[in-house]
């Protein structure tokens, strides 16, 4: 769909916010908006029961003026969105690591994207890779082991890699992908330390490739709306945030419970969503925090954290009370209190369904595939040569907070962040 005429179309507010509102730099603003919104992953739907009124030109001169304006505006739109039109094929992606998330969420999401296609696989498990290659029609020459991953530099069908490996492997494979000339989308947390994050950013900058972190919530409509409500002060200035995310983890032998691979426990895995939410809702970095940890199963969680609660204070005075755990299901929420009202997401962070409401009623927003949205966005960033809103700097900022939380637990007192 190239244009939804302004006189007979209607857009969701979240979609408008996602593209920065109505454009003012082209004469065919309805066409400009139609293209921009669709590139953000939204779809145009026809409503046969809708009714609209519009005016018609009253003279030939007025008609000619209208047609000239629209024709010139169309040329402006073609130029403005030339990067999309210039792309002859969707960006090719290599999926690095074929665990549950890759198989059940990311690979299926690729079938829903408009800007991406799965062109290569990387795994340490030959049977898993063989099965996935057969399902998605990936040739044997585009299947790599961790040992021969560097050969991916010779594959012109791979534009970027999506790293879905244990946290301790993120830095290594980001560096190897960058040296191979491939852009990098890395699963969160970005790495196991601030030092590794900085090295990843520097390596990608030296190689001239983009680095983004897979913060899917920043593209999800309910989260986009929550950010708008906060930043535009719809209910006044934000004063208080309460956010929690956790679940009961299973197999005690999995890599997420091994510190050498995961770097930490619940905080690194799902608590990071809470850290992210507090940061992007306030638009600030915390200046002070205090954290405490509890363990009810010391055998299972002998290497990593089980339950952590922490409080963060932001420069504007906002207080965020947060928690994460690996022992209780059903904790998945984010509540924001402002001067004249409140809004919340509950459930907030899972990838199956998000619901939101405000003090004025429910958020009536579409359920989307978060992974498809983030993949398409990064593909557009590569084509348009612009930085991602979830660049490596975002991953580094989160890791600074996470390290401060662990430091506060270790010291038993508040920590000041600089």
Question: Can you describe this structure?
Answer:
The chain is an alpha/beta fold and 418 residues long. The chain has 13 helices and 15 strands. It has helices at 13-18, 29-39, 60-80, 82-86, 100-110, 126-136, 170-179, 194-207, 221-231, 259-262, 266-282, 370-384, 392-411; strands spanning 91-96, 116-122, 143-144, 160-163, 183-186, 211-213, 238-246, 288-294, 307-313, 319-325, 331-338, 341-345, 356-358, 361-362, 415-416. The strands form two sheets. Strands 14-13-12-11-7-10-9-8-15 form a nine-stranded mixed β-sheet. The longest helix has 21 residues, at 60-80. The radius of gyration is 23 Å and the shape is globular.
Q: Considering DSSP H and I runs of 4 or more, what fraction of the residues is helical?
A: 25-40%
What's the assembly state of these chains?
A: single chain
Number of helices: 13
Structural class designation:
alpha/beta
> What's the overall geometry?
globular
Terminal-residue CA separation:
48 Å
Radius of gyration: 23 Å
Biggest sheet details: 9 strands, mixed
Number of separate strands:
15
Unreliable stretches covering 5 or more consecutive residues: none
Mean pLDDT: 92
Strand order of the largest sheet: 14-13-12-11-7-10-9-8-15
Question: Summed up, what is this model?
Answer:
It contains 13 helices and 15 strands. It has 418 residues and is α/β, with parallel strands linked by helices.
